[in-house]
Amino acid sequence: MSKHILIVDDSKTVRNLVAFIMKKEGFLVTTAEDGLDGLEKLYSCAHVDLIISDVNMPRMDGFTFIKTVREQETYRDVPIVVLSTEGQEQDIRTGMNLGANLYMVKPAQPESMVKNVKMLLGA
């Protein structure tokens, strides 16, 4: 069974690009426009194996999204990758402290994204 990835990013271009890269590697992909949409999609999916989230988004930012996901027992162990243009040390520290497993700064190389996702999934 293919692993399922939830991609949360307000940029349609980024969502589509990351989805294309992950689908090409055989992953099932669900996309969301922001943190609130991400929570809705997470709750409506039968199972999500990994989340890739941006930080700067309307309605609910990525840090609030990660914090909300980590507060729920069901999703506490789902790996979360932050993929953001915010690459300052404080942003990275905040993301990791809230429960992200990995913080990647855009633009990330597709090979690096795939390698890291597979590592986090043990694939």
From TrEMBL:
It comes from the Bacteria. Residues 4-121 form the Response regulatory domain. InterPro entries: Bact_response_regulator, CheY-like_superfamily, Sig_transdc_resp-reg_receiver. One of its GO terms (biological process) is phosphorelay signal transduction system. Keywords: Phosphoprotein. The modification 4-aspartylphosphate is found at D54. This is Two-component system, chemotaxis family, response regulator CheY.
